Amino acid sequence: KEPAATIAETLKDITSYEGEDAVFECRLSRETTQDAQWFLGDVPLQSNEMNEIRVQGTRHTLILRKVTLEDCGPISFKVGQHTSAA
Q1: Mean of the per-residue pLDDT values for the chain?
Q2: Is Lipoprotein tagged as a keyword (predicted)?
Q3: What is the DSSP string of 15-66?
């Protein structure tokens, strides 16, 4: 059983303008096969035409494309028992 990954670099609050892309990054202590999940409020996010979710090694990136006022709210990233929010 692999040891649990922890969040090494937390999310940072960002301000973006309507129509811009908002980029959130979180870095884990190690690469993991554990489920990592992004949320907007309580809603789990999936990679689709509005959101891009990337994983490059220990770096997890969420890109919200062309944000609107409805996208305003808390973004959180969860892996195992660990959570970071912005």
Answers
A1: 93
A2: no
A3: ---TTS-EEEEEEESS---S-EEEEETTEEP--SSSEEEEEETTEEEEEE-S
